[in-house]
Specification:
Elements lengths: L1 E3 L8 E2 L14 H11 L6 H4 L4 H8 L5 E3 L1 H9 L4 E5 L2 E6 L2 E7 L4 H4 L7 E5 L2 E2 L5 H8 L6 E8 L2 E8 L1 E5 L2 E6 L3 E6 L6 H12 L5 E5 L5 E3 H12 L2 E8 L4 E6 L9 E5 L6 H11 L3 E5 L7 E6 L13 E10 L15 E2 L5 H8 L11 E6 L1 E6 H6 L1 H10 L6 E4 L5 E4 L1 H8 L17 H9 L19 H11 L21 H9 L19 H15 L1 H8 L16 H11 L28 H14 L6
Parallel strand pairs: 13-14, 14-18, 18-19, 19-22
Antiparallel strand pairs: 1-15, 2-5, 3-21, 4-11, 5-6, 6-7, 7-8, 7-9, 9-10, 12-13, 16-17, 16-21, 20-21, 23-24, 23-25, 25-26
Helix pairs in contact: 7-8, 8-9, 10-12, 14-20, 15-16, 17-18, 17-19
Length: 635
């Protein structure tokens, strides 16, 4: 089973490409149809099964994660999840809007010896400009036989340089580690493969007697093997279920870890928008199990898992060494949350260029003898920031302060070993740091200003064009779709409009189409959506209840098991029949330790007029309650 994203960047590649010309297809259309019907998570449309080739069947399915591999492609796929020895110059690079950018030069490679480094932009290979050339074509220009030479022209800070490199055998490690400042165990993992857990264990054994905090860097790690991610996370969390799976029939399974943790110290997981799949499983397990925090950009949002079928399982189907990867499961974190679309929201949301600095400041040593000159941040664990180092990295320190959500406790050190409870404003005064609070100027005009501030800190909601939130304004059906589209981090797509009154070029079309595809909204019954209609309370509650079921398996199971007695719950008599179950789910299904209902709405459902118009603040606050209650929102 695998959750390897092929690939978030067709992307990211080595200068030593492995892919060859496709071989003859071995899997027949009849066999492919059988596998899709037996394994695929959703019902396979008949027109998919009637396609003339395996290639067109997979294409018609419209699932980017269901992939057929030729023998050569399958070898490349499996090699991408392992340490690899290849012939090339030893650079990792990506195709961006600015061209081909070097991410890093591998240790001991010809590229590193010649001085290439991250951030360099490749301009030409052997004098031939590569502007506008696809990354795979660039790979073919750079790669070659061992011992042969290649000229690379690159730019750095506006200056062009040409170097001559001799192609050589380069070991490409998928996981590396080092000790920083004699107490920070740093592990960089670019993919989760069969060797990953061994590398993690080696790092923990080598640095375990010195490291008092761990940093696991999963930036640009697009996935890999599920058990590699869960077992690697288990080294930090100890025994327990690391991820849950639900198949198309609604049955659940789990990946448990059965051993004790290999360290007692916390871990900071670094992520970015390219961290996906198995990386999201790892990050969610660390946070849900209370073993550390996540820092960086919001992750990609891949919440489905694939079964990989090859000749090991069906030798008669894949005798030539080909394989197929089929989406078979939806996965959920230990707290029961999906990462599909929404991804992992970091505890500290930080701009990509400042992630390293923020993590380094957080990973300070616990003070000895005196707490003076130290800032303590209580974020599930106690993190110590050396204020002298913070002054040396003012941008990173500012990013750290601005990422801390309102309500988290921070402390300033005093003489001796005591701490003084402080706040961000005092820290700014004491240190001279720059700080811009994430808040809407009119946020406190309503009843839930603190919640609006937290949603803004995590970039989950936006104001109107004037920069204000307008908490008391009502919102239309289109505006609600756009609010949820932004909060869920939905991907832009070219999906045609599902409604006759939602124009393809309307500002809300992508949001309406995405919410419709997710099953969160419906039309009014005649093929129209009425995007400009003002939404009322029971409509809003119904949509948010669907969202709760989509995000969290507990709400999904509660809604599935709802009985007819819900319709008789006292206080829901005024709700339309189609809204009663939703009102119950968000206002009565959750109870505290004393058996009292916990409402995830702005008020108990029985105190809400179901037909009154909903306000922007009510919609935002209910979204906040749902995301924070499920721990999808770390605040």
């Amino acid at each position: 089973m695998t959750q390897h994203l092929l690939s978030r960047w067709t992307a990211v590649g080595l200068s030593l490409a492995l892919l060859s010309a496709p071989a003859a297809q071995a899997l027949t259309t009849e066999q492919c149809a059988q596998l899709l019907q037996e394994i695929y998570i959703d019902q396979v449309p008949q027109f998919v099964l009637e396609q003339p080739t395996v290639e067109t069947m997979v294409e018609a399915l419209g699932d980017p994660y269901t992939v057929y591999f030729t023998p050569e492609e399958y070898k490349a796929f499996t090699a991408s999840m392992s340490d690899t020895s290849l012939v090339g110059i030893g650079i990792v690079y990506a195709q961006t809007e600015d061209g081909i950018l070097v991410d890093r030069a591998l240790e001991g490679s010809p590229a590193q010896k010649a001085g290439l480094q991250g951030g360099d932009r490749i301009l030409a290979v052997d004098g031939k400009s590569i502007q506008g050339i696809e990354i795979n074509a660039v790979s073919k220009l750079i790669q070659g036989e061992e011992g042969t030479e290649v000229n690379i022209t690159y730019s750095r800070e506006g200056r062009e340089t040409t170097v001559t490199l001799t192609r050589a055998l380069v070991v490409v490690p998928a996981t590396t580690s080092q000790l920083i400042d004699e107490h920070i165990g740093y592990i960089s993992c670019t993919t989760f493969g069969s060797e990953t857990v061994g590398h993690f264990k080696e790092a923990l054994e080598q640095y375990g007697d010195k490291a008092t905090v761990w940093i696991v860097d999963l930036r640009s790690n697009t996935g890999g093997l599920t058990n590699a991610a869960t077992d690697a996370a288990g080294l930090f969390t100890g025994a327990g279920d690391m991820v849950y799976f639900r198949d198309g029939s609604g049955k659940y399974g789990a990946f448990p870890y059965g051993e004790r943790a290999s360290t007692i110290y916390p871990v900071i997981v670094l992520v970015d928008e390219h961290s996906a799949s198995a990386s999201e499983i790892f990050a969610s397990a660390i946070r849900d199990r209370g073993s550390g925090i996540v820092v960086g950009s919001r992750t990609f949002g891949k919440g489905v898992a694939q079964s990989l079928v090859d000749k090991t399982y069906l030798p008669d189907y894949f005798a030539d060494g080909d394989a197929i990867k089929i989406t078979a499961y939806r996965f959920f974190s230990p707290n029961g949350n999906t990462t599909d679309q929404v991804g992992v929201i970091p505890d500290l949301l930080v701009a990509p260029e400042l992630i390293d600095g923020v993590a380094y400041l957080l990973a300070g040593r616990s003070p000895v003898g005196s707490t003076a000159g130290t800032l303590r941040v209580d974020l599930y664990w106690q993190w110590y920031v050396d204020l002298n180092k913070a002054k040396e990295q003012p941008k990173a320190f500012q990013a750290l302060l601005e990422a801390i959500p309102q309500g988290k406790k921070i402390w300033l050190g005093t003489d001796g070993m005591k701490w003084r409870l402080s706040d961000l404003e005092e820290v700014v005064r004491e240190t001279g740091a720059t700080y811009n609070r994430a808040a809407f100027p009119d946020g406190n005009e309503g009843n839930h200003g603190a919640a609006l501030d937290i949603l803004k800190t995590y970039h989950l909601i936006q104001g109107k064009e004037d920069g204000l939130f307008h908490p008391h304004d009502t919102l239309t059906r289109a505006e609600l779709c756009q609010m949820l589209f932004n909060a869920l981090n939905c991907k832009d797509s070219d999906v045609p409009s599902a409604f006759s009154d939602v124009a393809q070029d309307a500002w809300y079309q992508k949001a309406v189409s995405a919410m419709s595809a997710m099953g969160l909204i419906e039309g009014v019954g005649d093929g129209t959506f009425h995007p400009e209609d003002t939404i009322d309370h029971q409509q809003l509650i119904t949509i948010l209840a669907r969202l709760a079921q989509w995000l969290n398996l507990s709400f999904y199971d509660l809604a599935t098991d709802t009985t007819e007695t819900v319709a008789d719950v006292v206080g829901l008599e005024e709700y339309a029949p189609w809204a009663k179950n939703s009102a119950w789910l968000l206002s009565y299904s959750q109870v505290n330790y004393f058996g009292k209902p916990i409402s995830l709405l702005w008020a108990p459902a029985h105190d809400i007029d179901p037909t009154a118009y909903a306000t922007r603040e009510e919609a935002a606050y209910a979204l906040y309650r749902l995301l924070s209650y499920t721990d999808i929102l770390p605040a």
